[in-house]
Amino acid sequence: MEPFRIHILGCGSALPTLKHSASAQLIEMRGKCFMMDCGEGAQMQFRRSHVHFAKVSAIFISHLHGDHCFGLLGLLSTFGMLGRTSRLKVFAPECYASLFEQQMNFFMQGMTYEIEFVPVDTTQQKVVYEDHSVTVETVPLRHRVPCCGYIFREKPTLPHIRRDMIDYYGIPLSQINNIKNGADWTTPEGDIVPNSRLVEPADAPRSYAYCSDTCYLPDLYERVKDVTVLYHESTYTSENEDRAKIYYHSTARQAALVAQKAGAGRLLLGHYSARYNNENVLLEEAKAVFPETYLSQEGMVFEVK
């Protein structure tokens, strides 16, 4: 099974602290690397991750609050100074289009690579990125500005052909793809070996849902049903639920309810309010509802499996 990793670059909220960086993640899957949000200081955290800058093929921005996007221009500039030549796509709410163009024209003249802005309709759930092995789908959220989450999904793969069957029947390499696609094997003696004996089931496709800043949405679980890992903002504990409503954020318990109802495999918490010196209070609150809950922390690499 190929690696599917989430690198946590930042998991703090709007107020900068010495403990946490602003929201940013790297998602490695199927040999590609995507960036999810790019708060201030993201490129410094990026360097600490030991993921090469050139690996990033697309950046996804959930919404236009500074703690999720103030690091974008600096990172794009650094890519240019490092001699990047491959095209880069930036997916962000469509209201950013005109300002992004102005920033590119002002700050990014003479870059050696092409930057394509892809406007995102944050009110729709739809696939916005697709290649031969991965899809990325938007998830409408509700915050003080247009905002959406994203689901990163692996596409199904073909079954695994059994090595012992290849050796036993002397199956040539030229026929392996046919068998993976469902063909039986006919021996030189004319006996037919059914496909079910020749292959083992493919690995189940994995998925990662990133639910950025949002108030609690009781029906959100339907949009992230059965994801392998769910990241859901958890800015407050339940004792500050009134504050969460005012600022369109969620509590740790509410994040856990979404994970529980969605049937998610695991839950990652993040976007912690600076009022908490110890985020274990958030973890304990969430685990009371959904035991498979974990705290995200800068430098953490979380395996999706």
Automatic annotation (TrEMBL):
Instruction: Tell me how the cofactor is bound.
Output: Binds 2 Zn(2+) ions.
Q: Which SUPFAM superfamilies match?
A: Metallo-hydrolase/oxidoreductase (SSF56281)
Task: Check the record and name the Gene3D superfamilies matching this protein.
Answer: Ribonuclease Z/Hydroxyacylglutathione hydrolase-like
Q: Which InterPro entries match?
A: RibonucZ/Hydroxyglut_hydro, RNase_Z/BN
**Which keywords has UniProt assigned to this entry?**
Endonuclease, Hydrolase, Metal-binding, Nuclease, tRNA processing, Zinc
Q: Which residues form the active site?
A: D67
Reaction(s) the record says it catalyses: Endonucleolytic cleavage of RNA, removing extra 3' nucleotides from tRNA precursor, generating 3' termini of tRNAs. A 3'-hydroxy group is left at the tRNA terminus and a 5'-phosphoryl group is left at the trailer molecule
Q: Please name the GO terms that the record assigns under molecular function.
A: 3'-tRNA processing endoribonuclease activity; zinc ion binding
Q: Which cofactor does it need?
A: Zn(2+)
Q: Where does Zn(2+) 2 bind?
A: D67, H68, D213, H271
- Keyword Phosphoprotein annotated: no
Record: residues binding Zn(2+) 1: H63, H65, H143, D213
Which E.C. number(s) belong to this protein?
Answer: 3.1.26.11
According to its UniProt entry, what is the function of this protein? Zinc phosphodiesterase, which displays some tRNA 3'-processing endonuclease activity. Probably involved in tRNA maturation, by removing a 3'-trailer from precursor tRNA.
The family note in this entry says: Belongs to the RNase Z family.
Q: How does it assemble?
A: Homodimer.
* Protein name, entry field: Ribonuclease Z
Highest classification ranks of the organism: Bacteria, Pseudomonadati, Bacteroidota, Bacteroidia, Bacteroidales
Q: What gene name is listed for this protein?
A: rnz
